[in-house]
Amino acid sequence: MIRPITTRTWFACLAGMLLILGDHSISMGADPNESILSNGMKVLLIEVPKAPVATVQVWYKVGSRNEVMGRAGLSHMLEHMMFKGTARYPKGSFSRIIRKNGGIDNAFTGQDFTAYFENVAADRVGLALELEADRMQGLLLDHGEFQTERDVVKEERRLRSEDDPQGALVEALFAQVFMSHPYHWPVIGWFADLDAMAIEDLQRHYDTFYSPNNATLIVVGDIKADSLLPIIKRLFEPIPRGPSPKQTLPPEPEQRGERRFLLKREAQVPFVMMGFRIPNYSSEDSYALDLLESILSHGKSSRLYQSLVYDQKMALAVGADYSLLQTDPGLFYFYALVNPGAKIEPVEEALQREVARLQNEPPSELELQRAKNQVEASRVFEQDSNFRHAMLMGQAETVGAGWRRVNQFVERIRTVTAHDIQRVAKQYLTPDNRTTGILIPLPSKPPESAPSATHDGKS
What we know:
By secondary structure, this protein is α+β, with helices and mostly antiparallel strands. It has 16 helices and eleven strands. It has helices spanning 7-21, 74-81, 93-100, 125-137, 143-162, 165-177, 191-196, 199-209, 225-236, 285-297, 303-311, 344-360, 365-383, 386-399, 404-414, 418-428, and strands at residues 33-36, 42-47, 53-60, 104-109, 114-121, 215-221, 259-266, 271-278, 315-321, 330-338, 434-442. The protein has a six-stranded mixed β-sheet, with helices on both faces. A five-stranded mixed β-sheet has the order 7-11-8-10-9, sandwiched between helices.
């Protein structure tokens, strides 16, 4: 029987192929066709004719980083309201039209960006562009719709944080690490801020940040850039240039000692997290940190999995997270989900030992090459998808790195040495730069019993 090639199988085969090919491996793809419209909007068009489909994405340079204390969650709330209609396309029309034409649409908000996308057949790209141009300038903000959508976002917050102990711990970790920078608050916002939010706040946010000169339009797929660009100009150039919001934030003050906190929530098992402040894409160290994350946490051959899950059997799951594509210096964190019956302290000590091991001796050449293969295979696989390719370009453009850094990524990764990884481990993963959060599980509360029925004396 022929076994189907799954994503995981393809990824493993590609990683092995990269090991064989070495420095003569797969190209990262052609450069996009880049244009700047007269109103300042950047346009990136990438021709990928392998299938008759395309993705259309509009990236705005606004996220939770662009909010102020007391109005956390404003960017995410506005993302929800962007689907509430315009004079030309009333509420519900946008998604209904896309679906009717065989496509899908959605949006997402991060710390540094808000992005909207449509994945459509190649001959429907013009329709998606028309809809995006319409809501870039014509959004109608209705008070009643805002009240309803705020309840939706609050329920979303309950699911993501209030009812998810691990999500709550991640949220608390960022709040402890970033004391003054807007990365302090969650993208979805706090309940108090959502309650205090007004329709006027949303209108001000829209008027300030939703303008063509604060946006990047990306189309990747079976398109012809020369014929599509005139359509884009016709649809988007009539939209007037808006403000040029420049938000230069002071750097987060230096951390001068480990921070620790406990979070007690209803949960099944404890959860341990360690976070370290690290640089973003603007530092060459970011590439070594990316490989360090792979060595620690990618796959069952990673150091954390081998030590804590396989050998010592003290953790159910382990992992790490780091994104070099951020506007400001961010957070490198790793975690362990403690095995039932295991104690928290040995798990924390085991995490610290793995950090110390990297600091005391560099990874072997074989381990380093495996990590490079994993990172490169992941990047090649991402760029094989129209959607993921556009996402990489959009994120790089929006945070200030520029799309060229995406195509240079593998080349930069290949230059990292084992001693570079040891050096960044020593420089950034230090006790004084560490914030440790521990989730202490509480037993579930018994369900409240329903009040007993009363009788009014009637038979």
